[in-house]
Amino acid sequence: MGNSRRILLVTGRLAEPLVRKYGKGCDVFVAPVSVAAFLTPQLIARYLKKTGIRSEDYDLILIPGLVRGSAQLVEDELGIPAFKGPRNAMDLPQTLKALRDGFKLSREIPADDLFSVDALKRVEDIRNRTGNRRYIEKALKKPWNVLVGNLPAGRDFPARILGEVVDAPRLGVEKTVEKALYYLREGADIIDIGMVAGETNPDFIEEIPEIRERLAGKGFDVPISFDSLNTAEIERALDYADLFLSVDAGNVEELVTEKPVVLIPTNQSTGFFPAKPSERVEFLERLKEKALDLGYGTVIPDLILEHVPHLARSITAFQLYRERNPDDVLLAGVGNVVELYDADSVGMNALLSGISKELSINLLLTTETSPKARGSVRELRRAVDMNLFEIPKDLGFDLLILKEKRSVEWRFEPAEKIIEAREKPVRLEPVYFRIWVEDGRIWVNAHRGTEVILTIVGDEPNAIIDTILEHFDIGPRHAFYLGRELERAKTALKLRRSYVQEVELFGEFYVFKGVDV
């Protein structure tokens, strides 16, 4: 669609200034309602017809994305193509540009949702292309790509994520499979079997074929990596795994294999680790050369990504190594940084993934050992997908979980009479409720005295409160309280946080105390 298209934007009274501001070049029809979300396709068609708009007046009508129902009804009534625009007026420039570029809008789906679907479809197309057999065969002829089990990795492929099952022998086969399946469904490409430091568990190593078989039975035919610094364990696992972490100067002569191994710049037997980036790089280069001379088939260097306060020097080591060895496939353990920093993981995973893209680090190892790292595999997968594009911004999908890309102006004109809210004493009732979350659902126990008289379980607060009201006669204040707590429980589930009744999910970090602003 060219710039000559005559486009009519429909909105309500409150959003009119923003729609005019961001919808430059378009006509604006302001419906006689305060909030655009209160409109329906039927109302829009009626208002436009009453105004006298004819089919020849416009080439396109955009109705607010918040309107429920299909824009098809508007089109049928007026004879003008009608589509859903974005929910937020600030997204109008992106929508109008997309129209000029030939993007096809929907009559049912808001434009901003459609951009997300389109962007994720492009991600899927990229992944499908790099998964094509001919593409893989051609790519594997280049020195900067390798095969890990049945999975190609390297410069010509998206970064691969290893999800580490920490202390797998202590978990046992059942729990290891359970954790592995969780990682794979979250977006991991390789399952990393983490052994127990300071122990030797040969019997568990014999179970790796069963773990692989059980994962395949669930539809996941993926590589297995073996993570141990114990030479005897690695030696025992050579027949069972596809990738080995980690080989260093202390055991390099004992573990020669054609399978890929990760080389680290240490000598665990003597406690040697070069801290200075240049020394670390040179040590690893010598170790790589030695490994290849010994007959190793594929070596994947890992400069060791350190946590703060040594993060900068380790990134420097990666950069220096990459400059000197542009064709090597590299691995970095990003989980080490996240686990040892008391901050939300999502931003750190996004940034570390971006740094990895810049340095062409092709394998990213992470884990979710502590509660603060929950969701790290999913976060890394989204970050890797964002990094398939030149700049990870304005893609239609993002990693904005607790923050927002744009502030939404949502307010109404107050009445002439304004009163200050006041809290009243709470009247105790004979029935009370205990709420908790378990297995991804919300559970509620109804108590009378010390006796639990009914348990209600559900996914949606509305359904649970309706069920409570159906079985118990409680006051409005009690019902409001339960509704608030149920919404809090649902938010905790969405964010994979703990939930404790009457305990706030978030602190007051952003709240100004005793300061006039």
Question: Can you walk through the features of this model?
Answer:
There is one protein chain. This protein has helices at residues 16-22, 41-51, 72-78, 92-100, 111-130, 133-139, 168-186, 202-205, 208-217, 231-237, 277-294, 311-324, 335-339, 345-358, 376-386, 461-471, 476-495, and strands spanning 7-11, 27-30, 60-63, 82-84, 145-148, 151-154, 160-165, 190-194, 224-227, 243-247, 260-263, 298-301, 331-333, 363-366, 431-438, 441-448, 451-458. The chain is α/β, with parallel strands linked by helices. The strands form 4 sheets. Strands 12-11-10-9-8-7-14-13 form an 8-stranded parallel beta sheet.
Task: Please give the radius of gyration in angstroms.
Answer: 29 Å
Q: How much helical structure, as a percent, in the residues?
A: 25-40%
Total number of helical segments? 17
Shape: globular
**Mean pLDDT across every amino acid position:** 94
Low-confidence stretches: none
Strand order of the largest sheet: 12-11-10-9-8-7-14-13
